[in-house]
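Reading is simple: the token line describes the chain's fold. The lines below illustrate.

. . .
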Amino acid sequence: MRPTTSPRQRAESLLYSIFDAAEDGCHTITASAGGPCAVIRFHNEGRRTYLGQGVAMADIISSTAAALTGEVCGVVLRSIEGEGKARAWGWHVRGLAATPLTADALRFAYSRDERTGEALPSEPGLYYDDAPHINLV
């Protein structure tokens, strides 16, 4: 019998895996399952991750757990890479598995109006990259 993993443990594992995967610089994680959305801004420098002043990791884990209440959710990491340039990675999270999205799959998701399905114009300076594999729990 597999041990059960709480939403809080799932969220914590996801966040730490993404913190580890991100390179040095400023980043934003967005996690949602169609309901509440968690937005986490952080900065990596060397082997350290810094959150905004007055932001507690416990609060971030709680908001991410709330955003991951659905069985299936999406997670996007945007990284600032210089003047007017940013990279986006994405994962499809189902249960305890985070499946990396290809650049094309993420571009398709980002380039559609979620209500109408209509194509949206590309965001200047944003490029999509194949996401790395990350481990959950």
Observations:
- The chain has a mean pLDDT of 86.
- The helical segments are 7-21, 57-67, 103-110.
- The first strand starts at residue 25 and ends at 32.
